[in-house]
Amino acid sequence: MSLYEEIGGEAAVNAAVDIFYRKVLKDARINYFFTDVDMVRQAAKQKAFLTMAFGGPHSYTGEDMRKGHAHLVARGLNDSHFDAVMENIAATLTELNVPANLIAQAAAIAESTRNDVLGK
Amino acid sequence: MPNILYAGQSYTCEGQSVLDCLTAQGVSIPASCRAGSCQTCLMCAVSGTLPKQSQRGLKPTLVAQHYFKACSCYPETDLEVQLPNTALGKIDAQVVSLDALNNEIIGVRLRPVSPFPYHAGQFINLYQNDSTARCYSLASVPSIDDTLTLHVRRVPNGVVSNWIADQLKVGDTVAISAASGDCFYVAGQPAQNILLVGTGSGLAPLYGIVRDALQQGHQGDIGLYHGSTQIAGLYLVEALRDLAQAHPNFHYIPCISDEVPPADYRHGMVLDVVLKDLPDLKGYRVFLCGNPNMVKAAQQEAFFAGASLRDIFADPF
Fold it and tell me: What interhelical angle do B203-215 and B237-246 show, nearest 10?
């Protein structure tokens, strides 16, 4: 079984996206990056991101990640913010009772986007 | 092999998704994840049968309007498709009545000259002329009302609203667009609790949605909070109180923020009153209409209070 299936597939992503986005919006370390964005569109992007992190279908390229976050890097997005997002992903999966070994795998996938997201 | 009809052209679809088929043949369709997740490539089917997979994960309001994800749509039969909101052709409608609902809001009833499918709570464009139009929500319900009803607020220096208030007459013909928007009631979860929050003429879609839900036999609690600075800013107060009398599961809560109102109103900003009454919105369906600042704040607060983003429908204006 793939990681995506083990975590619970699309149903898991749907459950995770609300919890994750709530955490992000309440996280004072990063929520100011989200003050002027459309919540529904942002949630769709986060769903796509979580789907990828959970090992699911995606077609993001490193280039997409760079382009999509360049305006945030210009506003000071750095490793500390990326770390905060990683924390929120892990906390979300913990809240959904996903086993630790699967959380570690999802975290590794999310971590692999760090340099592209931060434009390094 | 199925054909895809798009913008008057036919494209043969050879085992591809609608998105791949159209983009391969030079048609530009907005897309992002191409994996059925982000919904950037949302399109709308005019005719034909959509594969179930192509609508998975979409809000029921989008499914009801035949929206689908072009990247996940592998058609088995011919399909006519369009991008959302490109088909809003104009239809003539006759002005049936114009009534002051309060000092600044006019109820406008229109009778379209041809059949006009819509859901209560959707909006239309009303054209003053070819280049000037404004968006108004529908307060009427197709299965209850035989005309369309708009609540037009006279906006200071507003071109269209002042034209409607000062010059439009009963019997005039105006052009309107087809209805669009996804702020409406969908049956299927009759026990779900519903919260509706509006300010000013944001009551229009909510008045339609509430009556539509009750008409369709909704069983869960339906709470409508309408806010204004003063009592004079509210309208349809008696009609809504009567509706609440007739339906024990419907509650109408008028809220006044500036002056201290009589006991049958609540005192405070509408969103504050809502959050005091309903601190836990888990499982709720939420409709928010009116002042953009209120709608934006309410969207976030409803989400924080536990409502799923999928269940929050917002219409700022």
Answer: 20
